[in-house]
Amino acid sequence: MIESIIASPEVVHYICKRFDIKMSKKLGQNFLIKRGIVDEIVKSADLEPGEPVLEIGPGIGTLTQGLAQSGAQVTAIELDTRLLEVLDTTLGQYENVKIVHGDVLKLDVSSIMNHEPFKVVANLPYYITTPIIMSLLESKLPIERLVVMVQKEVALRMVAKPGTKDYGALSVAVQYYTKPDIVLDVPPKSFLPAPAVTSSVIRCVLRDKPPVDVVDEKLFFRVVKAGFAQRRKTFSNTMKTTGLSKEQIDAVLQEAGIDGQRRGETFTLQEFADVANAWDKILI
Ligand code: SAM
Question: Looking at ligand 1, which atom is closest to the CA of residue 57?
Fold first, then answer.
């Protein structure tokens, strides 16, 4: 059987015209039109035939087709009701594709994926990239890796190191749960419509265990959040956003052996962990 490739400017135009689909900016609809990019994403996912993979936002099925052709067992969650009929047509021939209608942030992803380990592959809607990544990481779902297209600026934040302008709470969370690396940059002309900015494909391989020992994860992320709450202030000062008194903050920093005159944005994951563990030890 000859399978026509969806990820091309002509086919995407044709499908949108035939189904009278106007891309919704509100839903972050920028469809891939370069099969080479689809292939790179699928390659980075390193899928085995039959392996479960979750796609978020299949759109009209451009990336989904590449995933289906790898032989993986694809579950794709799409919010836009208008696209369900389109997907039925474009992907109808693939028995290894299941489309689920709904908002990925509201659905019970664990039961949709049968509580089994899976990978996530997606060209994410830009308006909720960070909430989706954070919710997947914090959910403790049995995810093995994420291969996602995001705005380049977000990808740079995900891999940023301490002391750089891109380093922030997202960098710490992503690096705490995963080993991230940027696979490739993708120019605006690879999408329809073309977004205003360059995108990047980022691969995040989930860690078996975090790279630092943290006694109380919630407390760790509270300290991280405080550390970046007021970037221009010293860590001692910005820690006040946690509700601790100056005396308590001084005691915690002394216990952790950390100079509170530094800025939070210079802290390594280990230093954030040292502060959270000291807080846990002397105040809880
Ligand atoms: N995968 C397609 C591609 O690469 O051409 C489309 C990607 S497009 C950037 C993002 C897709 O996510 C759109 O189809 C949009 O309707 C869908 N979407 C937006 N918000 C969503 C949500 N909360 N849950 C599930 N899908 C969503």
Answer: 12
- Give the number of the atom of ligand 1 that is nearest the alpha carbon of residue 60: 2
Q: Is residue 4 part of a domain?
A: no
pTM over 0.85: yes
Name the residue among 62, 39, 49 with its Cα closest to residue 191. Answer: 62
The answer to whether the beta carbons of residues 188 and 198 sit under 8 Å apart is yes
pLDDT in tens, 136-164: 999 989 999 999 999 999 999 999 999 99
**Statement to judge: residues 230 and 202 lie in one domain:** no
The whole-number pLDDT of residue 2 equals 52
Quick one: which atom of ligand 1 is closest to the CA of 59? Answer: 14
The count of structural domains within the chain is 2
Task: Report the pocket of ligand 1 as residue ranges, CB < 6 Å.
Answer: 27-32, 56-59, 62-63, 77-80, 103-105, 123, 125, 128
Q: Measure the CA angle with vertex 87, ends 84 and 92; round to 5°.
A: 125
Domain span at residue 258 reads 217-283
Rounded CA-CA distance 69/53 in Å is 12
Nearest CA to ligand 1 atom 22: 103
Give the Cα separation of 124 and 99 in Å (integer): 16
| 29 vs 172: CA distance, rounded Å | 28
Between the CA of 31 and the centroid of ligand 1 the distance, in Å, is 9
Residues sharing a CB contact under 8 Å with residue 211, sequence separation 6 or more, in sequence order: 175, 176, 269
> Omega into 52 within 30° of 0, i.e. cis?
no
Residues facing 147 on adjacent strands: 121, 203
